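Ops channel
N.P.: pipeline sanity check, posting one input/output pair.
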């Protein structure tokens, strides 16, 4: 249950510092997880980004303060991190559907987002099939693109279009031909979270042991022990559900911790949308 306890520690830290200008690095220090891994785990378990959670909670408290005090709207705006009344009003209306002035007058309904509590259900869960393998360092080659992290859900906008483009321009076929490693199929890999820009690099890649063609980039994944989860069912729902199980069920009930190596999805089946489609998720462990 160490993962659950460490994530709850990070959430408690966010709640204790809602009025401060905290960073993802500050938050990730609490569970002793890298910022990129913490952001990913948080988004998978909660379906929102860290930044979106902080925004929702701050605007929830701001609405409560508007309704219960006589504090000036401009003072409340500054208190909850907004430089101008206009930016506060815009964000407030987006969340609550009313302006701060209307909320003070009791017009409309307030949308409240309560404090998160991480809970894990280990009883009656669907069985998970996995294997553990040890690998020396290996290389993946492919194309990468920088994407903004999703603000309001766990998805990263633009990735489906990236795959479509790679299919249409022949990149996918070239990578399939280059695949010469143990992992069959194409890989979807996220790495290099940039907090300042709130972006990540997403790779469409394949394991390849030879020379890297000029048109592709390469990334070496260091030697590690990996847990390889079976993913059964149509993409993308089967992948999403398995990721949630990994962090809400498997890690809390096992002695392993996630290593600081980018995890990835392996798209192996020729029919990704079949009810019996077989694919994998690889997560480095320690």
């Amino acid at each position: 249950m160490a993962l659950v306890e460490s994530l709850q520690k990070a959430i408690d830290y966010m709640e204790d510092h809602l009025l401060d200008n905290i960073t993802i690095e500050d938050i990730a220090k609490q569970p002793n997880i890298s910022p990129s891994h913490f952001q990913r785990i948080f988004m998978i378990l909660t379906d929102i980004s860290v930044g979106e959670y902080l925004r929702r909670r701050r605007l929830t408290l701001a609405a409560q303060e508007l309704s219960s005090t006589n504090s000036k709207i401009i003072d409340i705006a500054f208190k909850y991190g907004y430089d101008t009344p206009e930016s506060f009003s815009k964000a407030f209306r987006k969340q609550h559907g009313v302006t701060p002035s209307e909320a003070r007058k009791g017009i409309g309904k307030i949308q409240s987002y309560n404090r998160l509590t991480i809970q894990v259900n280990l009883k009656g869960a669907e069985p998970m099939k996995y294997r553990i393998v040890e690998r020396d360092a290996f290389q993946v080659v492919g194309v990468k693109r920088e994407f903004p992290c999703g603000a309001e859900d766990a998805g990263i906008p633009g990735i489906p279009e990236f795959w479509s483009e790679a299919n249409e321009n022949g990149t996918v076929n070239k990578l399939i031909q280059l695949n010469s490693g143990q992992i069959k199929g194409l890989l979807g890999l996220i790495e290099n979270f940039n907090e300042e820009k709130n972006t990540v690099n997403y790779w469409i890649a394949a394991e390849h042991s030879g020379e890297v063609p000029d048109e592709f980039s390469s990334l070496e994944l260091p030697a590690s022990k990996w847990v390889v989860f079976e993913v059964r069912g149509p993409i993308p729902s089967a992948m999403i559900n398995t990721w949630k199980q990994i962090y809400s069920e498997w890690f809390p009930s096992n002695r392993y911790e996630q290593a600081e190596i980018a995890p990835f999805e392996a798209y192996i089946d020729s029919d990704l949308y079949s009810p019996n489609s077989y694919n994998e998720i690889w997560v480095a462990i320690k």
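N.P.: looks fine end to end. The first helix runs from residue 2 to 16.
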